[in-house]
Amino acid sequence: MKLKITSLALLLIVAATSAFKAKPVSYKVDTEKSTLTWVGKKLTGSHNGTIDLQSGELLFDGKKLTGGNFAINMTTIKDADKSANLEKHLKADDFFGADKFAASTFAIRKIVSGSGNIVNVTGDLTIKGVSNPVTFPATIVWNADGTVTATAEKVIVDRTKYGIKYRSKGMFPDVGDKMIYDEFELAIKLVAKK
Predict the structure, then answer these.
(1) pLDDT tens-digit readout, 135-156
(2) How far apart are CA 49 and CA 83, in angstroms?
(3) So which residues are the signal peptide here (predicted)?
């Protein structure tokens, strides 16, 4: 009988502790201080540029990242060389279809702690209404002003998984030297504050 009461007391303590678990603290992404850059490569060279972030949130339990999300404004795709034709083409239906799909999103699903301030982030990236899991390393830095910076220097995305097949050698083997590589790179820097 004594064992049953002790077991019941322990069960109640564990349940009470779980019920009062601290809610993660939300840090809002500052879209003015945050950046997102892209690089796309083709057989004969590459292009790079920027895209504006629309919104975002990072969730922390103490200083441990526990979740978050962000939205990308696809209508703001810019080419570093200021090619209006390239920008128009990237916003067109055969690439990102920005008229119909004005936002792409990323939602964190899993975080695995690495060494120091590095974490491995897995989440759902949604482009053109299609979601696929993406995993990448990110660095979390707490700044003196109370903000937090999350940086992912090289996020690799396979565009064909989102239905973007324009000049893909995998989809069109006879494309020759006009081929555009299926994978493009994103570099993400999120600055967030409570």
Answers:
(1) 999 999 999 999 999 999 999 9
(2) 10
(3) 1-21
Tokens of 60: 């922390």
The string of pLDDT tens digits covering residues 38-67 is 999 998 899 999 999 999 999 999 999 999
Comparing CA positions, the residue from 183, 59, 37, 71 lying closest to residue 111 is 59
Task: Give the chain's mean pLDDT.
Answer: 90
Q: What is the CATH number of the domain that holds 157?
A: 2.40.128.110
pTM to 2 decimal places: 0.85
Residue 80 lies in a domain: yes
Mean pLDDT within 62-88: 96
In a domain, 7, yes or no: no
Specify if 77 maps to a domain. yes
Range of the domain at 61: 23-193
Q: In three state form, how does the secondary structure of 23-67 look?
A: CCEEEEECCCCCEEEEEEEECCEEEEEEEEEEEEEEEEECCEEEE
Q: What is the number of structural domains in the chain? A: 1
